[in-house]
Specification:
The chain has helices at 3-21, 24-36, 74-86, 132-145, 173-176, 270-284, 296-301, 321-330, 334-347, 354-366, 391-401, 407-413, 459-467, and strands at 45-52, 58-62, 68-69, 93-98, 101-102, 107-109, 112-115, 150-151, 155-158, 193-200, 208-214, 221-224, 227-229, 235-240, 247-255, 262-266, 294-295, 311-317, 375-376, 388-389, 416-417, 420-427, 430-438, 444-452. It is an alpha+beta fold and 471 residues long.
């Protein structure tokens, strides 16, 4: 080996030793600087806050006191607050009841009423005892046990306890007609969504075909304005369907050859859909209903009120909050966040609005020592681009959460990202992660990293590159 090669090898070994001698925080500082100098971050703000999970000491902070759009990392704050205020065993209840009386021949001279109690899981496919067919069968069994064979009135979806506004202020029009933008309802049903199966064609006359709607939605009209996207261009299809609307416009592009079956769309009136499905099920087994289904909100428009309940038939209890939060964070179910926010207001005696729920969250953490101005919260899921939280405030909440009896359930709900327990968040030009990590040496960290207003695509790999310094 000649002298030049020996010198190069020794230099490489020396550099490796220097790198190995660096502390994790020093490596993190360097990795952050690399991201900051990246072209994708030229016009962006990067927030980074890393705490020692044992002591809460700030190890490295960059823009940690700036309020940034959180995207779905806000769900960590919503779920931690819900655990603290409601308890991990909290459950919702939905009651099926009737008004009027049942005649000797089995005729219900009155209405069936589904009284919503704010349960976001009713009819959900995620849990064994919440699936649509299971719930419908429970209701049918209760109706048959009561001896009801005919209904002279109607089936009412009573969604009245949470008022009339389902969509939070600040949500954008492009989101609210799609499954991830489904609004909350005191009587939610099947996570307030349905599916539209699509196929792109090379025909100019019919570039995208609607194959089927699951389940069928005969009370909605779907206007298909989609165009076929090039192969590999993916899903850029959006549904424009407002709350209580009856016409859905499909706009955007659907790629040729895409493997996805279709898009999931928000149900505009979930309480109506629940009543409709029950009426349809009863009709199929020979229990007719004389009048069409309706909801408390629709009745209020016509200056009608839900009749007084004569008898309760059955009460459906939701999964425990610990199970709800598990899917809330694992699959980032926005609907659950909006339900939890209204529930926090409702259960503390306030009018159950998004605004009151958000203020409840802010007040709760302010009483624990956080600066309330670091928590500019406008929704429960982080879908609103108006929500702003500082990385430091989020990290402090994650730190305090470790001390609580419910923490194991909270920790279990966090997804695995980059070999760490991190909740992800993503909306337009925002990408963020928040959670926990234990390195090979047993050092434990609390991590919040957030970039707003980045350009291009593929930013997540670069965020992970920064966090790799802690491994």
């Amino acid at each position: 080996m000649n002298i030049v090669r020996k010198i190069a090898l020794l230099s490489l070994i020396l550099l490796q030793q220097i790198a190995n001698a660096q502390s994790p925080v020093e490596k993190l500082e360097q990795a952050y600087q690399v991201l900051k100098d990246d072209g994708q971050a030229k016009h962006a703000i990067i927030g980074l806050c890393v705490l020692d999970a044992g002591t809460g000491k700030l190890l490295l902070g960059k823009n940690e006191e700036l309020g940034l759009a959180t995207a779905s990392t806000l769900k960590t704050i919503t779920s931690a607050t819900a655990f603290s205020m409601l308890g991990k065993d909290f459950q919702y209840q939905t009651t099926l009841a009737y008004s009027g009386n049942i005649s000797p021949d089995g005729t219900l001279e009155g209405d069936l009423i589904i009284v919503g109690g704010g349960d976001p899981t009713l009819g959900s496919w995620r849990y064994e005892n919440t699936k649509e067919n299971y719930i419908l069968q429970q209701w049918v069994n209760a109706i048959q046990r009561a001896g009801i064979k005919k209904i002279t009135g109607k089936i009412i979806g009573d969604d009245s306890i949470w008022g009339t506004q389902s969509t939070p202020d600040g949500w954008i029009w492009q989101d609210i007609g799609n499954y991830y933008g489904a609004g909350s309802s005191a009587l939610s049903w099947r996570e307030n969504q349905f599916d539209i199966h699509l196929k792109a064609n090379k025909s100019t006359d019919k570039p995208v075909s609607i194959l089927k709607v699951v389940p069928e939605m005969p009370y909605l009209k779907i206007m298909n304005e989609l165009t076929a996207g090039a192969e590999g261009s993916g899903d850029h299809a959006y549904s424009y369907l407002p709350p209580d609307g009856s016409i859905a416009y499909l706009r955007g592009t659907w790629a040729l050859g895409i493997s996805k079956p279709g898009v999931s769309t928000a149900v505009p009136n979930p309480a109506f859909d629940a009543a409709y499905r029950l009426q349809d099920t009863l009709s199929r087994i020979g229990i007719p209903t004389q009048l069409p289904p309706t909801t408390a909100r629709l009745m209020a428009v016509d200056q009608q009120t839900v009749p007084a309940i004569q008898q309760k038939l059955i009460t459906i209890t939701s999964p425990a909050l610990s199970e709800i939060v598990y899917w809330f964070n694992k699959k980032s179910v926005n609907l659950y966040g909006e339900h939890l926010l209204k529930t926090l207001a409702w259960k503390t005696g306030k009018v159950p609005t998004t605004l009151n729920g958000a203020q409840t969250v802010i007040n709760f953490w302010a009483e624990k020592g956080l600066d309330k101005h670091a928590l500019n919260i406008t929704d429960g899921s982080g879908l609103s681009p108006a929500t702003r939280v500082t990385p430091m405030a989020m990290a402090e909440i994650l730190f305090q959460s470790q001390k609580e009896a419910w923490f194991p359930d909270f920790y279990k709900s966090l997804p695995d990202n980059n070999g760490m327990k991190l909740k992800s968040g993503s909306i337009a030009d925002v990408s963020a992660y928040a959670g926990y990590h234990t390195d090979r040496a047993g050092n434990k960290y609390i991590i919040v990293i957030n970039i707003n207003n980045y350009s291009g695509t593929g930013i997540n790999k670069k965020l992970f590159k920064v966090l790799d310094a802690l491994k």
